[in-house]
Amino acid sequence: MDKPASHSLRLGGTTPLSLHRRLPRAQTLTPECGQMWRSRYISPFSEMETFLKIGSMYQIVPVAPGEQQMAGGPGGSPLKKKLSHEGRPLVMASMLGCVLVLAAVVAWCYYSVSLRKTQLFKTALLDLNKDGFIIHNQAGAVVFTMAFRSGTLDVDSCSKEGDILSCTQSDSGKLNFFIQTVRPKDTVICYRVRWEELQNKHLVEHVMAYNDSHWYGGAETATQYWPIRFQGEEEPRPFITSDVYSNRNAFGGILERYWLSSNATAIKINDSVPFHLGWSEKNRTLRFQARYQDSPFRPLERQQTFPELSYRVCVGSDVTSIHKYMVRRYFTKPIKVPSADLFKKPVWSTWAIYKTAVTQEKLLRYAADITRHGFNCSHLELDDRYTADYGEFDFDPQKFPNASGMFDKLREGGFQVTLWTHPFINYDSINFGAAVEKELFVREPGGELPALVRWWNGIGGILDFTNPDAREWYSSNLHMLKSRYGVTSFKFDAGETSYLPRQFSTLGSLSNPSTFTRRYTEMAIPFMEHAELRVGYQSQNISCFFRIIDRDSVWGYELGLKSIIPTVLTIGILGYQFVLPDMIGGNAYPNHTAGGLNGLPDRELYIRWLELSAFMPAMQFSIPPWAYDNEVVKIAQKFTGLHETLVAPKVLELAHVVLDTGDPIIRPLWWIANDDEAAYKIDSQFLIGDDLMVAPVLEPGKQERDIYLPAGRWKSYKGEHYDKGPMYLTDYPVDLDEIAFFTRVL
């Protein structure tokens, strides 16, 4: 019986070969790729696939029994010659096929390694590469982008263990870099990011993109917008408290290292970072930089001077909920609510009306006029200058010949009195020498001599509030005034780090200069019920009113009427809820006052300012309504009454909630409409709580305005009902003696 024909692969005139001897061998590859090769090609199924693929490339010829010997015998045969001639192209094709197969295997190896590295650089919703990282929301959209500007990661040094992705090398040397994923609750995911240089490098800089979202927070500024508008190109500069009235380009006296985005993302820079902030309007980016060189920040004692940039980025389901989480997690809360009188009745200050020319006679007349015109008063604030020299703690006998009798008369009239105070002692004060002898001042770097500083009232020393002796000396003088005259409390002015010398030393460490601001605000704690501060850094637990910086008597966004709502909203986002929106009509400073006669603010400006202030947590007069005419007095009486009966009860209710939650009292419209793009951009309306919406007129010559009503049912102060929000009310009429407000109907 004839043997069945077999099939083999013939390459030209060569001896038929088995497929396995001709295919690339796994042991010639790397162990990793070899394992992949064996699993891919040596399995029964892949072996058949390989055979079929090669069969389609090459000629399969039948071989009869004994033909191998004949074909390979001496001398060959015509068949052998024919096959030898025709087989040369097949030899070339087989070699090319082997190369292609080997190339495919190598490519697959690289792809597998690349795929594993891609998985390595993913953690939760974050994707990391050598140049930065991006974060997605649950829907897959990119909501946060950060680029590494000062260096790139060496990806070969990176590893992942659990929720921590870390790297040990950058293009400039050793570093400690990690991103840790934290899931504090179901709707929030956070990332702890740290880039710490371990070799001699001057700075670390990361650049955050806006990602077509709106950003809020950061700091009080002279020109305040809501949302933030970063204008121009600004190199990173120290993010510390400054007096923005005297330096309009600085960061303000109330600031925190916290920003919030309409994309439901938030970033908090760690306290240990020597933090500098810059920006690019062109690139729509914020520049976060850490450095000690050419900076007021200092490393802690016995700490290397290598910079470290660390922060937390959190992503939530919506902007309101992520902000609530950040406030509860990272901000302290007030420990009590200030005096209810401050919420209900206006503060009356001597500053804008009398400036430094105040006297005992003027103060008593001012109090009498308040009573005569039928106004209430939470307290009467005696401002600069009641002492003979700056840095003293008793009344100038020339201007106040009978201070004790004056206080008695004011108390009889039902007035409580607070006094202006500050951290400076001028060199011509009788207290200057005593403070030098007791070493109470901030000193020069050598630590021997007091560091003289220039402030708006002269030259002198500034008390070192890191020094327990200086704190005790200052506090004892305030308590002396309180006990001797029955002073109710104090207006604590200044406190910004911009009044520290560029080079200085303090008894306690000040690695972050803004800690000086924090120490100064602590001096208000014994007097909190009626105290007033104008600075704040990590001071949310100081339970007193925080006054926004002095306003000019103008309409615009630069310290004018239009800046008040954005400023109050901003510092509210930073955790400061007991807000005093400065004096009605502004401070009437020369060359900073619009219109008006006899140095007064413009009459219309004053009225619109008064109406807005009536819907703030507290009201403050200095220039009195009777400085104008009877109509202004009547409008003022109407709105102080409205404040006491409508606004104050609601604000007081919310103030007690602040102790637990830290939620703003004055809220942006997006607080109740976080899926509404229009609500993110409105800076001339606000909410008190969730159901009272206010829309003041902020333009000169206008008795109408456009009003945006978020979704829901609303009732106007005129009794009108609107049930089909969101909607715009175009040219809504608002008379000069009115302010538009709406109640949300649930």
Give a quick summary of the entry.
By secondary structure, the chain is an alpha+beta fold. It has an eight-stranded antiparallel sheet. Strands 7-8-9-10-18-15-14-12 form an eight-stranded antiparallel sheet.
List keywords for this structure.
746 residues, alpha+beta, Immunoglobulin-like, eight-stranded antiparallel beta sheet, 16 helices, 37 strands, membrane, Myosis regulating glycosidase, GH, glycosidase, transmembrane
* Percentage of β-strand residues: 15-25%
In order across it, which strands form the biggest sheet? 3-4-5-6-11-17-16-13
User: What would you call the structural class?
Assistant: alpha+beta
Q: In the CATH hierarchy, what is the class of the domain at 123-330?
A: Mainly Beta
What is the 3D shape? Answer: globular
* CATH architecture heading of the domain at 123-330: Sandwich
CATH-defined topology of the domain at 123-330: Immunoglobulin-like
- Radius of gyration in whole Å, from Cα? 37 Å
Number of helices: 16
What does this structure look like?
The structure is a single chain. The chain has 746 residues and is of the alpha+beta class. It has a domain at 123-330: Sandwich (Immunoglobulin-like), CATH 2.60.40. Helices cover 28% and strands 24% of the residues. The strands form 7 sheets. An 8-stranded antiparallel β-sheet has the order 3-4-5-6-11-17-16-13. An 8-stranded antiparallel β-sheet has the order 7-8-9-10-18-15-14-12. The longest helix is centred in the N-terminal third of the chain and has 43 residues, at 78-120. Residues 1-76 and 112-116 have low confidence and may be disordered.
